[in-house]
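Memo to structure team: turn this sequence into structure tokens by end of day. - J.P.
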Amino acid sequence: MTAAAARRAEPVLDDDAAALLAAKAVELAKAAGLRVAAVVVDAAGQVVAVRRQADSYPTTYNIARAKAFTSANFGRESGEMGRLLAGVERGIHITQADDRLLFVDGGCPLVRDGVLVGGIGVSGASADEDLACARGAVEHWVTGR
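Reply from structure team:
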């Protein structure tokens, strides 16, 4: 007898929603004349969707992925974590323990029904512009507008 695989009971980030989040972040960037990459990860920090403008810097993907991972890991915006850890000795130890973390603006956590389901990271413009695109994508995902 073969048992079916157990399914998660809590909300999860599906691939369609992740693709829409990444696409919306890039759409917002294009409208502002920016060249970026957007990466969406699940709650475990695994990449679910990527949207990278062909003319963005080659490094945008890795930076966006790190911002998304940081937000999914801590459940906070990536830059907010940097500000919380500024001047704190353990902040140095955290970044040395896991080089996938990046404490720079541009990453936002993704929360559904009060459950952390992932993160989105944007890179390629200024940190403030990256954050605006990530927040705009999250706002669209939450409200549908």
